[in-house]
Amino acid sequence: MPHSEATREFAPETYPEFPTGFPTVELETISLTKLLTDNDAAEADRVFEICKGRGFFYLELPGCPAGDIIAEGANKVAAAAEDVFKLPLEEKMKYHIQGDSLDGYKLAGETKTDKAGTGDTAEFFNLGKNEMIVPDDQMKKPWPEVVKASKPMFKEYIETAHGVGQFILGILAKKLGVDPAEFANRHRIEEMSGDHIRMTRGPPREKEELPEIQTPSHTDFGTITLLMNWLGGLQVWSESARKALLLNHEPDVPVINLGDAAVKFTNGVLCAGRHRVIPAPGAQGKYPRYSIVYFVRPENQCIMKQLRAPGIPDGPQEEKDINARDWIKQQAAGLGVQFQAYKN
Ligand SMILES: O=C(O)CCC(=O)C(=O)O
Ligand SMILES: [Fe+2]
């Protein structure tokens, strides 16, 4: 059952503004309407340039139906996330992420953030795309009642976020001289893939000094990610500063970033930015931090090879074929060794 308004902890209307006084990384803003509705060539050029560089940008949503669905949908998904995270631990543990599955619950502390073994502080609940978009009788896994009750809403959010991701990949394909169908056919929504909505909750900040690692340094494994959060705390790697810096956070504006699969398909032409999450800085840090992420990933059976195209330099032939499912597992297994590269 939804909780009464008074007890809601996901309450974006009450959050203070992102504080001044912290060094930040400025991201460029791309208009979804210019891309989707106006077919704006200059905006498409900017997307390509950004994706060859930092690989992170803000996506301005208002002005088109897909933008409205993402803006409203992310708020609804976060409200549902609160209902999920408020379930008793014993109930959440019934859905604990197990084996090869990405679906379900991850406890805070399960991921190590440094060599000393310090645990992360974020709880996740992952909602697999292939579970949420199929009729109830085709679902393969058990889900909490609060998830089942909101399934049509999750489905709409998934379809829209996936469509926006596909559209941006189509723009990048054209710029690279790749037939857009080559990208589209590696990310068909109805095919099995590791795509999911990740609902995240991080506790309030304990100390004033940064960081307190909520989610350790990583690049996303998939192709493209759409990320919504309402409080600061996302840090991206700044090459010039040689450390991770906070984004100049803007509420209600999602961040788009590329992942490792986009780098692989383009032999390094496109870039996946490294990032991590800390509790929000300053007065924002008093609030638990929710984020709603949608990961567009290659289909499980997709062979992870670079595409051959005029805009992609030829690398050596891959020694053996590996499909996306195994490749992502391999990327995940390598995560631990990257922490040393991080300073706050
Ligand atoms: O919570 C955030 O703002 C980012 C989360 C993230 O990077 C991830 O889940 O991959
Ligand atoms: Fe990420």
Structure description:
This protein is an alpha+beta fold. 28% of the residues lie in helices and 18% in strands. It has helices at 32-36, 41-52, 65-85, 89-92, 129-132, 145-149, 151-176, 180-184, 260-265, 324-333; strands spanning 24-25, 29-31, 56-60, 104-106, 123-128, 196-202, 215-218, 224-229, 234-238, 243-247, 255-258, 275-277, 289-296. Strands 2-3-11-8-13-6-5-4 form an eight-stranded mixed beta sheet. Strands 1-10-9-12-7 form a five-stranded mixed beta sheet, with no helix packed on it. A hairpin with a 4-residue loop joins strand 9 and strand 10. The protein is globular, with a radius of gyration of 19 Å. The site of fe (ii) ion has 3 residues, from loops. Keywords: Iron, Metal-binding, Oxidoreductase. Residues 193-298 form the Fe2OG dioxygenase domain. GO terms for molecular function: metal ion binding; oxidoreductase activity. This is Fe2OG dioxygenase domain-containing protein.
**Average predicted confidence as pLDDT:** 93
The Rg value, from CA coordinates, equals 19 Å
Listing every helix as H and every strand as E from the N terminus to the C terminus, the arrangement reads: EEHHEHHEEHHHHEEEEEEHEEH
Strand content: 15-25%
- Low-confidence segments, given as residue ranges, are 336-344
Structural class: alpha+beta
Give the overall silhouette: globular
Count all strands and give the number: 13
Largest sheet: 8 strands, mixed
Give the strand line-up of the largest sheet. Answer: 2-3-11-8-13-6-5-4
Q: Which ligands appear in the coordinates?
A: 2-oxoglutaric acid, fe (ii) ion
Tally of contiguous helical segments = 10
Instruction: Determine the N-to-C terminus distance.
Output: 40 Å
Helix share, percent: 25-40%
